[in-house]
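Hey, quick one: can you model this chain's 3D structure?
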Amino acid sequence: MRPQKRLFHLLSHRQNVVALGILLLSLLAYRWVSTQPGINLLTKQGLQQFISNTSLGGILVYMGVIALSVVISPIPGVPLTMAAGAVWGTLPAAIYSVIGGFLGSLVAYFIGQTLGRSAVHALTGKVIYFSKERGEWLLGGIIFVTRLFPVLSFDLISYGSGLTGLSLPIYMLATLLGMIPSTLLLTYMGEALTIDLPLGIALSILFFALLLLLPWGIHRYNWLGLRDIIRVE
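Sure thing. Here's the predicted structure for all 233 residues.
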């Protein structure tokens, strides 16, 4: 299909127009955030400096940046979440992070479901395939695990769920339940590191060790059967 015809086909459906509009707004927001003079909101230090000097506006900007980190791959969500924990404390930062991340995951799901694999590849540089042969609930369980232990990119899982047409309620439940414990851990580590708590330091070491160990085990031993259900190229 020629590019002109493909574009006309996309624009002929209302939901595609909505998805393209959301994607365009996300890209514009990313450009605005990444080009702020004198401060880089996409770094841990820059965001921490910005939100520590603001109230409600800082909270809204933070949630927007976290949502963007799911839609736009280059934004690092983990250090930003830890930075929020250092500023607001464990629980408030976790609430703001879960809201932002969950909204971003819904946007990515919708874009994947609507605009298709070529759009996802353009945004992430990768192609992801999910298998529903073993049932949607098993796939939902796998998504829960990847949210609980972020061994796979948050944005890729979100896009892949939309591409596969995974049931939205299953996707939302798995995403939300998996996000809460992992987000609380990250914000706690961010708060603990600012006051040099030994437990926070130990948890940080353990968490990042898991981030290295789990992908290795999945690649070598196919833990959880992930290689049979999720494939990234």
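One thing worth noting: DSSP finds twelve helices and two strands in the chain.
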